[in-house]
């Protein structure tokens, strides 16, 4: 199995994709640190951010604008953090962590940003179920 396929399986990208762009895919994070937490990942395998092409980097600006616009409309986050660590998963991707000063209710769950206002802890939070993920994707897409 290729490194890209391992990455895509680990993050359940086929099932949790919010939107696929030409060079990037935006998906929900299965381990959901905060409400609306996601991953923006390159559609081709690349272990180094410096290996991304000019076209891929240019499209990333469009992706980020859509991510922020849709997450604001869906959940009214207070701040947003992007983590590009690639220590465990050596593929170009960033974790998108919306930040909340106060709890938010969605889908019968109260979501609390346990790290606010400190840096986010992407290793905590519930694991999304498929029904939760579908409902969250629908909300983000305005359906």
Instruction: Kindly give the count of domains.
Output: 1
Categorize the overall geometry.
globular
Following the backbone from N to C, one meets helices and strands in this order, namely HHEEEHEEEEH
Q: How many distinct helices?
A: 4
Examine the secondary-structure arrangement and name the CATH architecture.
2-Layer Sandwich
Please summarize the sheet with the most strands.
Answer: 5 strands, antiparallel
Number of strands: 7
In the predicted model, the low-confidence regions spanning at least 5 consecutive residues are none
Average pLDDT, to the nearest integer? 97
CATH class: Alpha Beta
CATH fold-level name: HIT family, subunit A
Provide the β-strand percentage band. 15-25%
Quaternary structure of the protein: single chain
Main sheet strand line-up:
1-2-3-5-4
Write a brief structural summary.
With 143 residues, the chain is of the alpha+beta class.
Explain what this protein looks like in three dimensions.
With 143 residues, the protein is of the alpha+beta class. It has a single domain (3-140), classed as HIT-like (HIT family, subunit A), CATH 3.30.428. The protein has 4 helices and 7 strands. It has helices spanning 3-10, 13-16, 54-75, 130-140; strands spanning 17-20, 24-28, 38-42, 79-83, 93-99, 104-106, 109-111. A 5-stranded antiparallel sheet has the order 1-2-3-5-4. Strand 1 (17-20) and strand 2 form a beta hairpin. The chain is globular and about 40 Å long. 30% of the residues are buried. The model has no long low-confidence stretch (mean pLDDT 97).
């Amino acid at each position: 199995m290729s490194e890209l396929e391992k990455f895509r399986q680990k993050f359940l990208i086929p099932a949790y994709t919010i939107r696929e762009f030409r060079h990037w895919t935006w998906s929900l994070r299965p381990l959901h640190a905060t409400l609306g937490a996601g991953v923006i990942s390159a559609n081709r395998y690349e272990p180094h951010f410096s290996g991304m092409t000019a076209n891929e980097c240019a499209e990333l600006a469009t992706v980020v604008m859509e991510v922020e616009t849709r997450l604001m409309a869906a959940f009214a986050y207070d701040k947003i953090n992007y983590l590009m660590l690639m220590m465990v998963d050596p593929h170009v991707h960033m974790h998108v962590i919306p930040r909340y000063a106060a709890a938010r209710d969605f889908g019968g769950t109260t979501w609390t940003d346990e790290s606010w206002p400190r840096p986010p802890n992407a290793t905590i939070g519930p694991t999304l179920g498929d029904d939760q993920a579908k409902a969250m994707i629908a909300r983000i897409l305005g359906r």
